[in-house]
Amino acid sequence: MRVAIAGVRGRMGTLARAVVEAADDLTFAGGFAREADPAQRIDDDLARLLDATAPDVLLDFTVHPASVEIATVAVARKIAVVVGTSGWTPKERDTLGALAERNDVGAMLVPNFAIGAVLMMRFAREAAAHFPTVEIVELHHDKKLDAPSGTARATADLLESAGRGPVPIHSVRLRGLVAHQEVLFGGEGETLTIRHDALSRDAFAPGILLALRAIRGARGLSVGLPL
Fold it and tell me: Is there a contact between 82 and 58 (Cβ–Cβ < 8 Å)?
């Protein structure tokens, strides 16, 4: 499967390229970045890159709102997309999903590529039925642009869809951190904390592979890793 990567020079894009190049069943088709580097197969024109390399899937690690246009350009060309960029609005999600349905391709929005983070959210949803109060604390490195994080917002949405009221989110940005989140539940005489820690970006590699291998057979919009 041929994979193009948008944001290929960023932290996650660099990791993703290494993951793709190390996989026997994946091929790095080319990258999109602000500055072209033909020797590294990096183009600064997304449409030209996609037309020239014909990837099966575009993996996006840019920033919102540029990510919306990038994903739309790919899906319009009937190229599946895996989006690791947070900040998408419900309307933007719905629009991309409708386009993916019309073009018979998959579009996957992934708030967090760490397997443990996905399980944290799943366990938190189960616990929400048994505790009257809940809050979220998310902690990330000081270079992270958005607050709260996409994972925290996704967790809150998940809990609220299970019947909870608005879930407070507290954001911490400190040098030395990578990506961490706690979901704290309180009841009569007890508390429960469900915490996930990504200690290095290597934690995201298995999820990147999982998403890429799942998206080619998918149709329409999906949110989160298919565990």
Answer: yes
Contact 9, 18 (CB under 8 A): no
The predicted model scores a pTM of 0.91
Q: Which amino acid is at 52?
A: A
pLDDT greater than 90 at residue 227:
no
Question: What's the distance, CA 224 to chain centroid?
Answer: 7
Instruction: Given the residues 78, 144, 170, 180, select the one marked as catalytic.
Output: 144
Residue of 64, 78, 91, 140 marked catalytic = 140
Per residue in 81-124, pLDDT (tens digit) is 999 998 899 999 999 999 999 999 999 999 999 999 999 999 99
**196 annotated active-site:** no
Tokens 């291998």 belong to 213
* Contact status, residue 13 vs residue 6, Cβ threshold 8 Å: yes
